[in-house]
Amino acid sequence: MSESTAVLSTPPAAPPTARILGLHLGVLAVLFALHFVLPDYHHISLSRIMVLACFAMGYNLAFGYSGLLSLGHAMFFAAGLYAAGLVAQFADIAAPGGFLIGVAAAALVALTLGAIALRTGGVSFMIVTLMFAQAVFLIIYYFGTYTRGDEGFVVPDAMRVLLGLDLADPTVRYMTALALFAACLMGSLALARSNLGRVLIAIRENEDRARMLGYDVYRYKLTALTLSAVMAGAAGAAYGLLFGYVGASFASIQYSIYPLLWVLMGGAGTVLGPFLGTVLMFYLVDLTSAATTAYLLVVGLVLIALILFFPKGILGTVRERYLPWLP
Amino acid sequence: MAAVSGTEMGREPELLLETRGLSRHFGGLTAVDGVDFQLRRGEVRALIGPNGAGKTTFVSLLSGRIRPSAGAIAFEGRDVTRLKAHARVARGIAYTFQITSVFQALSARENVMLAVQRRLTRGLFGPSHASLAAEADSALARVGLAGRADEASGNLSYGHQRLLEVAMGLGMRPRLLILDEPTQGLSDEEVAAFIALIRELSESATVLLIEHNMHVVMGLADRITVLDRGRVLAEGAPEAIRADEAVQRAYLGG
Amino acid sequence: MTTFKDRRPAGGKANTTGADTTGLKGADTKPAKSGPSRRGVLAGLGAAGALTAMPGFVRYSQAQSAEPIKIGFQVHRTGIGAAYGRWYDRTTMAATKLINDAGGINGRPVEIIAEDDGTDPKRGAEVVEKFATQHGCDIAFGTLFSHVVIGSAPRAGELKIPYFVVSEGHHVASGMLNRYTLQPGITDVKSQVIAMAPWVSDNLGKKVTMIFPDFAFGHNHRDFFTEAMAAQGGEVIEQIAIPPTESSFFKYFPKIPSETEVLYHVMVGPGVLTFVKEMGEFYGSNRPEIFGFIDSLEAVDITSPGLEFLDGTYLWEGNPRQAQADQSEHDKFYREAVGVDARGASVDDPKDVSTYAHMFGCWETLNIVKVGMEACGYSGTKDRGALIEAVEAMKDMPESRAHPQGAKVFNGKTHQVFGHQFISQVQGADLVKVHTTPIEAGYYEDEVDYTTQPL
Amino acid sequence: MDFGPYFLLASLEGAVGAAVLAVTALGLSLVFGVMRIVNVAHGEFFMLGAVIAWWVASLIGIHPAVGFLAALVVSPLVVGSVAILAERTVLSRLHYDPEATIVATIGMLYVIQQAVLMTYGPEARPVQPPFDFRIQLPWFGYSAYKLFVILAAVVLLLAVWWGLTRTRLGLMMRATQIDRETARAFAIPVDRVYAGVFAVGAALAALGAVLVVPVQQAHYLMGHDPLLLSFITVIIGGLGSLRGTVLAAVIIGMSDGIISVFFSPTLAKIIATLAVAMVLVARPQGLFGERAP
Q: Do C and B touch, counting CB pairs below 8 Å (3 needed)?
């Protein structure tokens, strides 16, 4: 929104590549190891969290790194979800193809609606993305003959197969989710440390100055938004194929706000923050809902407390105080 | 209003930039009013004038930050009037802001790397981190900030931030460097160092300088253009401008 | 309408999943085939100590101290379904108490483990997973809203936990779901709607205008009723779809053709009072016959200000809210056990109106689970398949305390039950039953045979 | 129904919608304009206003009109107090940072919604209109109360206008809006002005809700749509332009009524939604904003 949104600060020192690589590969290794030790419920939940974390990482590319505060990212998630689900339902296109079509659909939405929305900035951008997402949500209802509107539909089992492996199998699902997660995580890391990432941060910090350094700000933003949508769409497509359900609630405004919350909680503009935020939000809801029906009350209070005391999110604060090299 | 004729040298240097009838209105207000302006390759030109004369608007038109209401701009013989700001930068027109606007959250080095990177980038991905950093460090060394490369630029002193701006200008290797009040807020020693720096810089680039500090103007400029109420009031060598009555009236007579 | 093909491979999917991925530590649980390594490591850690010390793991380790039958109750405590959820909860608790007082199931007490699904399909799926893998529930049960059912059912099928829904959606019988999902306690919307058409056509008029919400539930009404009306020689002359986010309806009334003899309305959501009130303002005393579904008036007092216009109109009721003149002793018993007075409100608070037309489904479903478990000698999660088969084998369910809404016929192939439907007229402050449809009036051709799917 | 009367009906409906929207969105606009923050909990203040109206009206059982009038006074006061509490304990500590405020107000949204669900319950409850009178036109009947809503909204808007231009508080608000620092230099208690503006904004949402609750019902999820619509209205009207907000409310409310005459309703919503987006793309400063922000 405002130009003073220093959601993060980048490391002043030359980034210690080995340490950074070690940390992120270490996280992936731990996630791999957890497959063998986690109790079933947490094993299933972590599969889902990893997929949703890809959504959050995609959001982080736009919001955390490029300063694009979108309130409509559900449209990208839904584009992936519905494209993958509908081709499975009506065209007998199974997992790998459906996944790619889902990703392509999200990219297409970004390159059309996103390209229009990027003509605006600041608060207008928030509202335009919100409106576009709302239109996508209503379009899903409008074509209820195919989408079954709010009810949604079940992705046929026979389509949920990847390279001969059944995606409904817990191990296959976990490993598929982990692979997608690893791709998004390492992709985010590479991007954050790339020349492109540096330009995106520059645009976030001071758009006008970036332009006067000769950067075509619009094109860079569109690139960022498209990459962001690709991750969100990949998460959506994977969600539909791994968990077997496609429904309009995933296109509702809630699902535009969730990734914002996850990213803010974990730390905007940090590579691991979105994942951390997704994990914490999931368990916050899960544990409090077991204890009280008023779990949303707890979630609300936690959000307020976080923003009051950890405004840069958890990893943003950690980076500021302890680990300045954290990407 | 007749322009003071410039000192004639042996040969006519090549034209770098030219404007014809350049105008810009804001509502009913005319900030720049039909300016014809020529800049030769290699010179250091100062642009002076009382407050509200339209200096910043004029250079903003040159850099493409705002669009002209009328008139045309040619750079190196090609019409750039319709070109967007970033594309003009790519042609070699660099602009440093009047208000310091470095990327505060990034280190000094990364600020300059951004300036270098655009020039060396083809497509979305550019040169290696190491080569960028090396070139950035040499630019920082030239402005005397080598020791502060790793500091977050927001933590630098004001004077250092101005120097960083210049280093970013250097990193872009522009053909035309437009500096908007670069010495504002600097101490006397900093100003002296700055003059030396611009002199050195002018060997590789044409410089257009908006400046209030007459000491800087007289010490640096080959020629001076005086703007008043959006028009060119006078143009010529420093001594000629100093002697010009119309200029004195504009400045002193109010 | 789109038909959702059953795309399951004929021989069942490649069986990579092994027998039981849901297993908890119960002695009767086999390790998942996918998970021997996972289990091995887990056991090898021995230390589960470290893990069980974490907050989320506590119940997991306590799961086996007592041996009750654990029923995971997926309940809408928050979100748009909250008003229904509260009464589903009360009905469920009342039925459980009775079952336990009578000695439980197979001598084991029934324990209800309730989790809020937020009326959200994603959370719903998570809750089913939690029942299956953390709470160690024997079955999952209780969901109303269709999108939650459809979002959760694939997970229930994969985790092989029987999933008994009380949703009245057509999703079960349409074949979209799977062998582990059943709806034995409440008639589905397709059957309800089909059963209404003859009476509407014979008693109210032949030219019908339908007003329905523009989403799947409304589309079911639109498609099934239009077809059924045509079969009766009537005609739906206009279909007015209301967008999902609408909160005022007045501007839609001019779309109603003037030759309309019957106005058929089904609105879901909190806007219904506005709808009725504005309909009254629009028509005044000169109105067509009006027939509606009580779904949106569940938990709403029929004497609420604004509902006066409904006087003299007709409503479908899944179960008559008010005790009728011919009230059965079963309904009397059920009403008292749940704590509902003769007007359909809570005995503690006459303003707290029940969702009487639907909530009986919870009561009846739990009783069917009891019968099913006893029939197959259910002893633990390994018998889940046997439980499904036992329920599939059921057919006639006579009216009784276990079935206070009335007799029903269960179709084991489509996993859907069929029962009587009621039409009531609003007469002042009362809902008076004027017609009871025969069960057969709601029959339609099978669209799926779940019994051919592997367990 | 013939086109003419149908159009009249749609326009009347549009006007009622516009009236409530104008009052509600004005509250958001005020907060937006003066404090430069987006209050995502605005819809929940609206909902709270409706719920409190139901409470007041059902406590005072004498005559619907008495209950309604009492609600008209009590509801905005209570909601305003809640808003002051929120502003002092949370927003002021965030120094009104735009992004932090969005997150904090999303948190408030959950807290208020859940608190109402726990106390008031999940039902939709009606409030009796102060008078129940139906005007029979030649083609259709119409609620006199709805016409009253239009009138009441106009009176409220005039009152707000008077308050902003003729009172000291209003002057301080406008001074703060123009330049916070200068206002501080002129010894305007900016902190208290902010708290006041936030309270007035919330109170306006509550007033909008009290007006609408005899037409709709109080329900704990009812805040979603007013928030979205107010949001759109404020942006289309132009950031910080109160006149623009009111004009935009009229346009949006009326077009919502009239578009439904020509298109299938869901398609109409899609078209309207896209239209709003395209207006913003073409004019990011809003229809009536003076210049780009």
A: no
